[in-house]
Amino acid sequence: MSNVIRKTVGVITLSVFSFFIGCGDNELIEPLSFQLDTGLIKDSNGYYHMYIDTTSLQSFHRISGKITRNGESVNTIKFAWASNMYWIMGDNFGYVIANNGLTDDLVYVGYDTTHITWFGGWEVPIVNGSSYSREDGEVNTMLAPVRSMRGDTATVYFSYYDNWLYQTSEGNFKIIFN
């Protein structure tokens, strides 16, 4: 008889404990909040402006932001980034000058300059595709338009997933390349 009572009390205790743990926790969890920091000047129309260095193939710029929940920084939130612009890589990407030296069989080998030519036609996005937030909530990605994009306007898209509330948040902003 005491064995049946023990099992019954155990089931009731476990049920009550599970009820208290499962209730109310999601109500206290605020959604993630993301504050974008482009590091660029924003005009009255809401467009950001980025200077393009025409003496170089690409101009590099870091886009940052901070992700928080209840005012506290959030670590390891994955961000997806994309843009409506990309550029096509030409056939000659560059070259490598190999060091001269000995093989494993101690035979001296001297290589000429090796040209890298297999990249022709590759599409190159102007923004890195993904990044993660750091312990302090900071998230970063790199933007790298090419000089021929001067005068164009790019839309940069971002999204992140809140795995506590099972919600995806997304946004975008526009950059004019000057």
Short structural summary:
The strands form 5 sheets. A 6-stranded mixed β-sheet has the order 2-3-16-15-6-13, with no helix packed on it.
Structure write-up:
With 178 residues, this protein is mainly beta. It has a domain at 31-85 and 126-177: Sandwich (Immunoglobulin-like), CATH 2.60.40.10. It has two helices and 16 strands. The protein has helices at 2-22, 25-28, and strands at residues 33-37, 41-42, 48-50, 61-69, 72-73, 78-83, 86-88, 94-97, 101-102, 108-109, 113-116, 123-125, 130-132, 138-143, 153-162, 167-177. Strands 2-3-16-15-6-13 form a six-stranded mixed sheet, with no helix packed on it. Strands 1, 4, 5 and 14 form a four-stranded antiparallel sheet that branches.
Which helices and strands, and how do they pair?
Elements: H1 2-22, H2 25-28, E1 33-37, E2 41-42, E3 48-50, E4 61-69, E5 72-73, E6 78-83, E7 86-88, E8 94-97, E9 101-102, E10 108-109, E11 113-116, E12 123-125, E13 130-132, E14 138-143, E15 153-162, E16 167-177
Parallel strand pairs: 3-16
Antiparallel strand pairs: 1-4, 2-3, 4-5, 4-14, 6-13, 6-15, 7-12, 8-11, 9-10, 15-16
